[in-house]
Specification:
- There is one protein chain.
- This protein is mostly helical.
- It is built from 2 helices and no strands.
């Protein structure tokens, strides 16, 4: 009877040890994945900041005025060219 109990305890200990090894391995893999994803998140946040700065630069009123005048040939109308339409 004691040999059977001892064998059961040994088998349970081995199965438990294998379970612990598997859990530790899975934890390491998930931690590496988490670190990789955090790094990607940080890079995306930096890129988003750059894009916001670029958008702000392109949307400046001086820049829009310059493009309208130089590339599109637009100009402010003279006083005589302005017509006010009222309902």
């Amino acid at each position: 009877m004691t040999r059977i109990a001892l064998a059961v305890l040994v088998i349970a200990t081995v199965i438990s040890a294998i379970g612990v090894v598997h859990a530790r391995h899975q934890h390491r893999e998930l931690y590496v994945q988490l670190t990789r994803l955090e790094r990607a998140r940080d890079e995306l946040n930096i890129e988003f900041g750059r894009l916001q700065l670029e958008q702000a630069t392109w949307a400046e009123s001086n820049r829009i005025d310059q493009v309208a005048r130089n590339k599109l040939g637009m100009k402010f109308p003279a006083a005589g060219e302005i017509v006010v339409v009222r309902p």
